[in-house]
Each structure stands twice: as structure tokens, then as C-alpha cells.
Amino acid sequence: MNALIQSSLFAFALSLLFTFPADAANLPKVTILATGGTIAGTAASNTQLTDYKAGELTAQQLIDAVPSISSIAEVKAEQIANVASGSLRFSDWLKLAKRANEILATSECDGIVVTHGTDTLEETAYFLNLVVKSDKPIVLVGAMRPATAISADGPLNLLNAVGVAGSPEARGKGALVVMNGQINAAREVTKTNTLAVETFKTPDFGFLGYVMDYKPVFYRTTTRKHTKGTEFDISKLTSLPRVDIVYQSLDADEAMHKAAVSSGAEGIIQAGTGCGSLSDLSLGILTDAVKKGLVIMRSSRVGSGEVTPKGKYDDVGIMHTDNLNPQKARILLTLALTLTKDPKEIQRIFATY
User: Fold this and answer.
1) 3-229: which CATH topology?
2) Which residues are known to be catalytic?
3) Which residues have a Cβ under 8 Å from the Cβ of 16 and sit 6 or more positions away?
4) Please, where in the chain does CATH 3.40.50.40 lie?
5) For 217-226, how does the pLDDT look when each residue is reduced to its tens digit (9 = 90+)?
6) How is domain 243-352 classified at the architecture level of CATH?
7) Does position 345 have pLDDT exceeding 50, yes or no?
């Protein structure tokens, strides 16, 4: 770790060093699976908040920057990847999820924390929410400021995430996103601001609870099935089906639709206007795509709210995605296609998860 990183993190580390009394015999066992992102990012200056390199620090360096973590949990760390989250691939997801399932199945782990870049954090969180086969907590955490920044948010976010992951109260609640002192459900949370530390919000329902002194306080829970309650099994998968997202905008031509149809995609999520509306041109192209065997589903570019059934779309086999945003609808359809292409079954899956 270079001198700038050390100087930026040392003061915060010292302030937390003796904050919590340790009872080593009773500490929960938490494994951190690191994937990179801003939380592991560095810059040339501690006032450089936007132009930095993500995925520079290792998982162990993140832990070392917050010595008080050892007072609230027995922590181990593994490096799954170390990149900006927009560079993660499905292969990384499968590696991460399979490793999480292996660790959670042992008595040596009470919960998992995944450190992650914020740009696609909500997508990884929802994927894990659907494929992790344990009721032990799995918590995703990131940061909006690099580790070298003044007032870096990563250290406290990480401390809170470890506290939640090691808590009995977080069991059975599915994958969680813990940032900025708030706990959000993986299915419902989304990134809402490009720079603000309070970027992660749940537009329709609000967050699940707070983190108080590194401990969770829950006020509600999600009702959709998750983790142990899902029908998805990735244990033998080495790849995932291709599903593309096509964005609906005024006076858009057919080029993007045709590219998706001809690219080998098995499904298309249409990010429609308003309540998942399609232009007449889009409707015609996607109706033909359904006839060719593609699975087509309507989501919305709005950012919140339910996409409801509509006869003119349903009648030609174009389905709807409930209240999932396009990127999360893509994940659920991708997993659904590992099981079926039957429209009724896929619509049931979207009503279930």
C-alpha cells in the first residue's frame, strides 16, 4: 500500500481501533468476497473524488484499514475479482455465487460480505438473491468515494456490512445492500445518483432498516421468494443464456431491435416508455421476434412502478416484468431461461421473484 493510501486511512483506522470490546470466543464468522470497485479504488490526491482507478486495493487491505472489524467478527477474505463493476462478466457471477454457496454451507461461516463497485452492485445483489442457497446473511457493500479520498465512505460501510452479515437478525432476509447506514433489499434497491453517497434507494417501498452502531435494526422485509426458496440451480452451469435490453425512445428505428434479434439472444427486455409502452414499429418487430421463438418482455425506463398487463401486447406473446427495472428483469429472465421457454411459466416466475 503506498504512502498516500496509508495516510488517508490511518486516522480513521486509529479512531476505530478500540471502539468495540472483543469477545473472541463468541464472535460471528464472516467471509469477505472482494470483487473490486470504488471501495477498493485509489487516486493521486485525497481531494480527487471522481477521477480515480477502481479495483486497486485487495480485500485484506480493506480489512486492515478498519481494525475494529476484528472486534465484531472473525473475518476471512478472498479475492474473486478486482475490477470496476461494469467490467464484471457472467463468468464472475457464477464463480462468486458458487463460492458463496460453498462457504455458506459450512459451519465456518455465519455470513458473507461482497465488496463491489456501485455501478452494477444492484444487479449482482439480485443475482445472488436468486441463486444463493442459504438463509445466512449475504450483504453487498461498496463506496462512492475511493479509499484515498477525504471522508471516504468505504471503511464505515464495510464495518456496517460485516456487522449486519454476522447478525442473527439478518438471517432469512435474502441478499442485502448495506450502504450509508441503510439496509435495502436486493430485489428492490437501485442506484439513483451518479455521485452522492446516499445513491442507493428503494423507490417504491423504502429501505428495510438502519444500521445502528454496526448492528441492524429492521422495520420491514421483502415478500418475494429468494435464496433457499428459489427454483434456480447454478451448481452445474458454466454459462448463462443471452438476454439483451433494448431502450425505447421517440422516433427510434428498428436497428437496435434487429441487432438484438439477430445476435443470438434468447430473450429481449424492452425498456419501454411509461408503463412499458412500445411504439407501433417496436411492436411489429418484437411480435415477429416472438414468432421466431424469442422471449420478449416489457419493462419500463421510468425507474419505478409496475408494468401492468395490456391486451395488445399479451395477445401477441409479449410479457411484462412486474416492477423490476430493465437490468433486474434481464437477470430474472436469464435465470428463467435456464429452466423453461414456456410463456406461462416465465410469467409465473416474474410474479414469484
Assistant:
1) Rossmann fold (3.40.50)
2) 38
3) 66, 67, 68, 155, 159
4) 243-352
5) 999 999 999 9
6) 3-Layer(aba) Sandwich (3.40)
7) yes
